Structure formats: structure tokens, C-alpha cells
Amino acid sequence: MTHATWISGYDRFGNELLRHGFTKQRIDVVAFWTNIGGVTFITWLTIIAMAVFILAKHYTIGIWFGLTVLIGAAVIPSILKHTIQRPRPAYKLIPEGGYSFPSGHSSGSTIFYGMLLVCLLLFIRKQWIRWTILLGGIILILLIMASRVYLGVHYFSDITAGFLFGIGIVILSSSLLHWFREKKPHFFKSS
């Protein structure tokens, strides 16, 4: 599946778009964006977000948020990586182990920051603030995704698949939350 001609062309396009102008300073800046989408950073942010929701007595939102990130950003992508076993690109600027497809940074950051955006949009009513947060979240996710190709640890198709998978998880999980809120509203009351 990952060796199709159109995928190779798509990956070449991504490399030509994102992999140029290597300097020590630029690599350091791009590595910063990669770290913001990394497992350790996302895990700590998930724990903090869950704690904030629980302390604010939004227990169901906190548990829903944590389970979505855990299952969607950690469990399923890991299973996919070990099933597909696509090797990483040969020319990496940073050390990175494991398999390449789909990008865990892309799926994880899309799910975490996407879910955070959904949660913030539940509580924020002013339209200009909502749009500002949404735009900032999208830019952050795109920077994390681009960093993975720039650093040579993913192909363009890896980050695209991770992003699309992440969007799918956010939509599915948000839809389930909406359905659950209508069917069981007592679970969402602060107490």
C-alpha cells in the first residue's frame, strides 16, 4: 500500500516543499515544534487538562478528554505502525526509532489540540475568541506536522494520514460526546 507510485510522488512533493534551508538554528527551532507534538509533552498536557476539568467539576469532560487522547493518540496509532511497518526515511536530521506510518506526532497533536479546541469551544461564547483559538490551534498542528518532514523522520504521506486520522477521531469523539450529553445530561452537571 505505501509503495504505490502516487504516494511516492506525493512524498517527493512534500520533501521539495518542506526539506530545504538546513541550518543549525533552523533545525533547533523546528525541533522545538516537533517536541510540542511529542509523546512526553502531549502526555503531560493531557494530565494537566484532565486535572483542570476535574477540579472544575467537569468530571465527564475530563474523563472523555483523557480517554480520547489515550486511545486515539497512543493505542490505535501504535497498532497501525506495528501492523503496516513502514520504515522511516533514510536521511534523518534527528534520531528517531520505530516505524513511520502513520505519523504519531501528527495524529497525536491533531487529536490533543483538536480535543482541547472542542473543549474550549464548549465554554467560550465570544465568536472572535473562538475563531482566534481555532486558527491558533490549526497553525500549531500544521507546524508540528511540517517539522516531522523537515527533520526527515516522516514522509509527507505519513503526516497527512496522521492528520486525517486525528481529525476523524476528533469528529467521532465529539459526536459521541454530543450524543451522550443529550441522552444522559445528568452526567454533565457540576457537583
UniProtKB/TrEMBL annotation:
Transmembrane residue ranges:
32-56, 63-84, 104-124, 131-153, 159-180
The UniProt entry, under InterPro entries, shows: PAP2/HPO, PAP2/HPO_sf
Cite a single Pfam family from the UniProt record. Answer: PAP2
Q: Which part of the chain is the Phosphatidic acid phosphatase type 2/haloperoxidase domain?
A: 65-174
Quote the CDD domains the UniProt record gives: PAP2_like_2
The alphabetized UniProt keywords are:
Membrane, Transmembrane, Transmembrane helix
Q: Reply yes or no: does the keyword NAD apply.
A: no
Keyword Transmembrane attributed: yes
**Which PANTHER family would you find in this protein's record?**
AT30094P (PTHR14969:SF13), SPHINGOSINE-1-PHOSPHATE PHOSPHOHYDROLASE (PTHR14969)
How is this protein named in the record?
Phosphatidylglycerophosphatase B
Organism equals Listeria grayi (Listeria murrayi)
